[in-house]
Amino acid sequence: MTGDQDVDLQVPLSPDDHSLPHSASGEPTEEQDLSAVAPRPTSARRWTPQRVVITPAALDEPHGARIVARVEALGIEVERLRGNRLTGVRGDTDRQTYARAKSTLAVVVSPPSRRKLQPIAPSADWRVDLAEGCPAHCQYCYLAGSLSGPPVTRVYADLDDILANLARYVGEGTVTSRSAARVEEGTTFEASCYSDPLALDHLTGSWQRAVEHFGAWEAPVQLRWTTKYDDVDRFLPLQHARRTRVRFSVNCLPVTRRWEGGTSSLEDRVAAVRKVAMAGYPVGLTIAPIMPLEGWPEHYGHLLDLVARAVEDVPDLDLTAELITHRFTAGSKEVLLGWYPRTTLEMDEERRAVKRGKFGTSKHVYPREVMLELRGWFEDQLAQRLPRCRVLYWT
Fold it and tell me: Which pTM value belongs to this model?
């Protein structure tokens, strides 16, 4: 299999056009139609890729060799490629191609363009990618429509260079570095834009090394990442020096049970919040995507009560919340309905307002009165039920 049937592993999953902002900023990324290709959601467990490959350049990197040793110790064979092109991924149908790609892990060197970090407001000063790809199957996934080619998960072997590159960004940025409200966080680096750390770190160890790097870095800096998994035990003994904020993407039970396939349960995620907080990490809640479901105050009240009980006796608790409402674009709706044709997720344009972005994009968000009601409730209830929690932003 050659030519246009190959997958060029030098091409990243996410768009390399930096004029397109990341969706975490509240603006959508460019979409592509990958309809009718998603497998059914599965229960959460450590991901075991069916195929692991490594490029020659990645194998020359110290961290690439570490990943190979780690993966092979798990009994998974690592295929050494002769170049940067991967064959045998594209099938006879889009569904077959997607399934093959989704079960493949490629160890590669990051594109040179990734050395120029991009801002990622309102979350952090800078986005830094350690990998791209996620094995979860969330039916509202904001990344699903922005993939470039088959979604082979790529992990970066040049981790040492990626981390060394961060020093020149210290003191720069506008989200925390120069913000009176968040300046105590220092210069912040978001390391989970296009991946879920706990879905991949048992295979790579990349985020563990990043935590240790920031822990030893005597500077006003903070590493940030978010996850829908609970596999945190190996992070608990690390020397983090409180320079890594571990955030958990959480939602009310109807959302986690209906539309977050292949992730850890809400109860397990909340238990993990407690574990890392007791280990001294700053922690966070990424409550997203917030949806005004029937009975939503009771459902979200239950979520906040679960967290409140989990952290009530944590000493020196440093807890934040990021509040993100559900939104979609015409393109992402088409993709997600193709992936999940039987989904019950509400994506009715008639019930939404249109918000236009500065790059000519538009998205469907909740009407103003709904947004005001949701925001008012969350700000009031967080203050009551989690008084030690600091809300970073609402979008």
Answer: 0.90
What count of residues does the chain have?
395
**Phi, then psi, of 305 in degrees rounded to 5:** -65, -40
* Buried b / exposed e along 112-145 (16+ C-beta atoms within 10 A): eebeebbbbbbbbbbbbbbbbbbbbbbbbbbbbb
Residue 87 has which token pair? 């064959």
Q: Residue 200 and residue 330: Cα distance in Å, rounded? A: 30
Sequence letter at residue 213: H
DSSP assignment of 70-110, as one string? HHHHTT--EEEPSSSEE-S---SSHHHHHHHHHTEEEEEPP
The percent of residues in the chain predicted with pLDDT above 90, rounded, is 69
With vertex at residue 251, the alpha carbon angle to CA 177 and CA 311, rounded to the nearest 5 degrees, is 70
- CB 79 within 8 Å of CB 55: no
DSSP states along 282-320: -EEEEEEEE---TTHHHHHHHHHHHHHHHHTT-TT--EE
Residue 71 identity? V
Cβ neighbors of 370 (< 8 A, separation 6 or more) are: 292
% of the chain beyond a pLDDT of 70:
89
Tell me how far the alpha carbon of residue 334 is from its chain's centroid. 22
Q: Between the CA atoms of 289, 348, 358 and 181, what dihedral angle is there, to the nearest 10 degrees?
A: -30
Query: What pLDDT, in 10s, does the model give residues 106-160?
Result: 999 999 888 899 999 999 999 999 999 888 888 998 776 566 678 889 999 999 9
What is the distance between the alpha carbons of residues 306 and 284, in angstroms, rounded to a whole number? 14
Counts for the chain of helices (H) and strands (E), in that order: 11, 19
Q: Is residue 337 within a helix (H) or strand (E), and if so which, with residue range?
A: helix 330-339
pLDDT tens digits along 46-65: 899 999 999 999 999 999 99
Class of domain 3-394: alpha beta
Total Cβ atoms within 10 A of residue 99: 18
Domain ranges of the chain: 3-394
